[in-house]
Amino acid sequence: TRSYAITLLPGDGIGPEVISVAKNVLLLAGAIEGIEFNFHEMPVGGAALDLTGVPLPGETLSAAQQSDAVLLGAIGGYKWDNNEKHLKPETGLLQLREGLKVFANLRPATVLPQLVDASTLKKEVAEGVDLMVVRELTGGIYFGKPRGFSTNQNGEEIGLNTEVYSISEIDRIARVAFETARKRRGKLCSVDKANVLEASMLWRKRVMAIALEYPDVELTHMYVDNAAMQLVRNPKQFDTIVTNNIFGDILSDEASMITGSIGMLPSASLGEKAWTGPGLFEPIHGSAPDIAGQDKANPLATVLSAAMLLKYGLGEADAAERIEAAVLHTLDRGFRTGDIYSDGNKLVGCKEMGEEVLKAV
Amino acid sequence: TRSYAITLLPGDGIGPEVISVAKNVLLLAGAIEGIEFNFHEMPVGGAALDLTGVPLPGETLSAAQQSDAVLLGAIGGYKWDNNEKHLKPETGLLQLREGLKVFANLRPATVLPQLVDASTLKKEVAEGVDLMVVRELTGGIYFGKPRGFSTNQNGEEIGLNTEVYSISEIDRIARVAFETARKRRGKLCSVDKANVLEASMLWRKRVMAIALEYPDVELTHMYVDNAAMQLVRNPKQFDTIVTNNIFGDILSDEASMITGSIGMLPSASLGEKAWTGPGLFEPIHGSAPDIAGQDKANPLATVLSAAMLLKYGLGEADAAERIEAAVLHTLDRGFRTGDIYSDGNKLVGCKEMGEEVLKAV
Ligand SMILES: CC(C)[C@H](C(=O)O)[C@@H](O)C(=O)O
Ligand SMILES: CC(C)[C@H](C(=O)O)[C@@H](O)C(=O)O
């Protein structure tokens, strides 16, 4: 049996509930496929703030760094919203991404046939959508310096951030995107604001340069405002999208909502191929503090994140496919949490959904 | 009779066609309401580049500054896409906004009952949407310094922009937004990324401070990624949205596409109340180079921008309402350009649409 050390970071809100389901699914799928897991549960985000006073304790980061893969629930909540920057739960997440050097964030947005009605888009627009956003995750305006508060020439207070990309940062995310597109339908759309921003002009120039290494992938460019429109007008035109940290934050959330089932969508954050550190896997939904602890959360995004962990993080494709098939089978049998419920199906809570997936595994 | 000097900036692509229609509509509505217009047509964008070598000639800017209002068609085209930054058509538009000091960009997104089918959103989600994005237009990452290309500590090339807001810049756009919300349904949603960016933290702090002057307006805050989702999930929840330059660029385009009729949507860009310079009025659609010169463009966004010019720019509310009513009446009679065409209506070109609006004026 192969054995892996997995760091579980339940985090805040519905995080603990969905992580608990995903852990059981991993255990069972692993047992069947001959994989053993050693789980270490560590605090992060608001939970860590309450416990230790910081959003990413050193112990959590080093446990994560030393493990084979990291599975995160969700982070944040009203309680900590007015904290200073270094004491925000979100800062813990950013430190974790930085500390794990996971610069490539893969966010699929797929409309499952079973859930096409959950989209607010017309059926003919939503059905068949299957796109992947490759978001740069450890650079750009999220991390650029200088940043902070200062005074301008008029002695007035200013708030300031820096959007900055270097050639090597762009090149490595572009390569991940081209590789991803190559394994999908061979189409890559790079999104920028190169008609206004110099950081985007360099982005576009380098993406075009890297394209020469991937003659089999069809590359197009789109301005971010237009991309936000095209996702609504005709999301099926997209296969793989690559973009910077902040545009990726916005567009991947928009794309996920277009599927209508954000409670279903996983994500993977990966480092350099040469880097032996673990990947970070998390549902793209937030901590949903308003339904936390009520057994209402949809655990499937986290379960599918666990499948991505197996596939992208550990190279265990069979176990990953077993989990994905179990999720589809559970949907086929009509089980639905509240967020994806429609008439004629069976409304279940987070735990019961987990049990049904276990049966199907 | 009142007399006004109007600078017309047809610009590129379909710009000349739609401006020509709007000019005729202004002339007729003005004649009926006792208003005289002196039009000065000046080059801007790609048209100006071809003619003078710069995207905003000094003569164009000073003519615009000296007039009572400026009506712009559209800017940009493939031909100039690879120009250097200072020779891009878009740079002319940014210089124009800066030169006219129009820091407040009002972008309505309304789903007209006549056009609800044009939206890719389900009817029950789209119908009744009526929101206004108030976008900061002369600050933030579009104008922030330092910007450009440079080398980092590793000797690597970087592209860099600065997102920066001062207190006075935030305060004045916040006031415009609160005033706008007060005249609408009294709800203002401020969109930022205050969980990550210091520029957004200052934004949120100042919007909350200005809110004290407007106790009758209900203020909420939303992160930009969530706003991009909520516009798809339930756009009716929004009344007035206020946000920075780049988020406003993205979200207003997304909101416009949600209406399904981007060819219908006008915008107004205004300066300080105390400032006597003119406002800038333009459709929110682009220059559509692929259909330029083919008499296929929808002129209604520009006609409605002319109505905004009358209302917000000149205080001529009666003439503005006459034009708005004429547009609705023309739609009621079933006239549609290709972009908003649906079965059972009459397909017309740009010119014929203009003639029908003239009849209705
Ligand atoms: C919580 C926040 C810092 C984070 C981000 O902006 O990256 C989240 O929105 C996400 O997309 O994972
Ligand atoms: C053409 C471009 C510079 C412009 C912008 O980004 O402001 C346009 O997208 C707009 O929204 O008016």
Largest sheet of chain A, if any?
A: 10 strands, mixed
The largest interface is: A-B, 64 and 63 residues
| Relative strand content of chain A | 15-25%
Structural class of chain A: alpha/beta
Distance between the termini of chain A: 19 Å
Shape of chain A: globular
Q: Can you list the ligands bound to this structure?
A: 3-isopropylmalic acid
Q: Pick out the low-confidence regions of chain A.
A: none
SSE pattern of chain A: EHEHHEHEHEEEHEHEHEHEEHHEEH
Query: What average pLDDT do the residues of chain A reach?
Result: 96
Give the tally of β-strands of chain A.
Answer: 14
Q: What kind of oligomer do you see? A: homodimer
Query: Treating each run of at least 4 consecutive H or I residues as one helix, how many helices of chain A?
Result: 12
The radius of gyration of chain A is: 20 Å
| Strand ordering within the main sheet of chain A | 2-1-3-12-11-4-5-10-8-9
Pathway (chains A, B): Amino-acid biosynthesis; L-leucine biosynthesis; L-leucine from 3-methyl-2-oxobutanoate: step 3/4
Protein name (chains A, B): 3-isopropylmalate dehydrogenase
Catalytic activity (chains A, B): (2R,3S)-3-isopropylmalate + NAD(+) = 4-methyl-2-oxopentanoate + CO2 + NADH
GO molecular function, one term (chains A, B): 3-isopropylmalate dehydrogenase activity
Can you lay out the helices and strands and say which pair or pack?
2 copies of one chain form a homodimer.
Chain A: E1 2-11, H1 15-33, E2 35-41, H2 46-52, H3 58-66, E3 69-74, H4 89-100, E4 104-110, H5 123-126, E5 130-136, E6 148-151, E7 157-166, H6 167-183, E8 187-192, H7 198-211, E9 218-223, H8 224-233, E10 240-243, H9 245-259, E11 266-270, E12 279-283, H10 300-314, H11 317-332, E13 335-336, E14 346-347, H12 350-360
Helix pairs in contact in A: 1-10, 1-11, 1-12, 6-7, 8-9, 10-11, 11-12
Bound molecules: 3-isopropylmalic acid (IPM) (2 copies).
Keywords (chains A, B): Amino-acid biosynthesis, Branched-chain amino acid biosynthesis, Leucine biosynthesis, Magnesium, Manganese, Metal-binding, NAD, Oxidoreductase
Protein name (chains A, B): 3-isopropylmalate dehydrogenase
Catalytic activity (chains A, B): (2R,3S)-3-isopropylmalate + NAD(+) = 4-methyl-2-oxopentanoate + CO2 + NADH
